[in-house]
Amino acid sequence: MSALLPHLIERIQTTGPLSIAEYMQECLLHPTHGYYATRDPFGADGDFTTAPEISQMFGELLGLCLAQAWLDRDAPKSFILAEPGPGRGTLMADIMRATRSVPGFHAAANLYLIEASATLRGVQKETLADYDVTWCDAISDLPHGTLLLVANEFLDALPIRQFLRDGTGWRERRVGLPETPDTLIFGAGESTQIPALAHRLHDTKYGDLVEINAAARATATEISQRIARDGGLALLVDYGSWHSTGDTFQALKSHQFIDPLLQPGDADLTAHVDFEPLTEEAETAGIHASGLTHQGVLLERLGITGRAQALAANMTGETLDAHISAHRRLTHPEEMGTLFKALALFAKGTPPPPGFNPPGANSV
Ligand code: SAH
Questions:
Q1: Which of 99, 110, 180, 266 has the largest count of CB atoms under 10 Å?
Q2: Which of 57, 153, 154 has most ligand 1 atoms within 8 Å of its beta carbon, as the pocket-test mutant?
């Protein structure tokens, strides 16, 4: 049985059913039994894999994109290179390796990682042993200064709330207990008016489910206000769409989807990311958001095919086959190419980073 389950049962018995956000928060980040707190979940032996773990090309190309953006901003002598949710540190290591030959970039970069898991901080420390890195608990802890930020599959791990349309009101989906309280079940609260969902009354009907990721929105606000004040840009890559209707809450265990209530604390929990609210926060802060860009298109524009061919020249047999399939996995529309999207946030009066659609031109 999951070590977290008795704790969740007791909490629900004491204070009532949990919102999906409270349940995600407990499952992912509980200090002793939480999913990220207790393990390194990546790779073939783990539960899921991510673009930087699939191929070094992902981080290399984003690194060169960041370096070009730095040059386009007159190469500031000191800037913050930040990554929230860095996993194993692979993306940052690939960014640093690819930018070694860009004169002045390493000397100007001050590396900051924002990571909630002590276990993963330990892994990141090993991966990035060659660099001077500072860890933070939150993006708001970063010092002031030109910000170059990159995040891959960070926003999807933040807690969402779910609401079921009921007339002109909404019933919040919750996690509660059955009569014999030895497992968890979904339920829904009373119908109430939710001002933050007023705009969703136009494109939903009775029984439809919508999601709010308040933490993702707050992240976009924090990043956008910093870029408006200090200059810089952010590259946000995740799976999702402009805005969604329907249940995207999902659990992965050993690369299989499972019921999200089945193994609390032992399965990865995520939800698709809505990019519309992130764009709204950028506009409110007075900066630009690029058009939403398919990951496959972005990587092709940044030159993945040429890079893949250069790497392939030194490969044979199984290594070559794995490399070819990694290239396909990152870019093909039937794999990660269109499900994964990239959004860049950047200061007004500065050019968009290479590879991204211009503001307003979403590829959806
Ligand atoms: N970017 C990595 C890992 C993605 S998994 C990759 O692409 O491989 C999500 C990461 O976000 C993990 O490192 C997890 O520990 C971290 N994380 C989740 N919630 C967080 C939070 N609230 N604050 C900081 N880090 C968080």
A1: 266
A2: 154
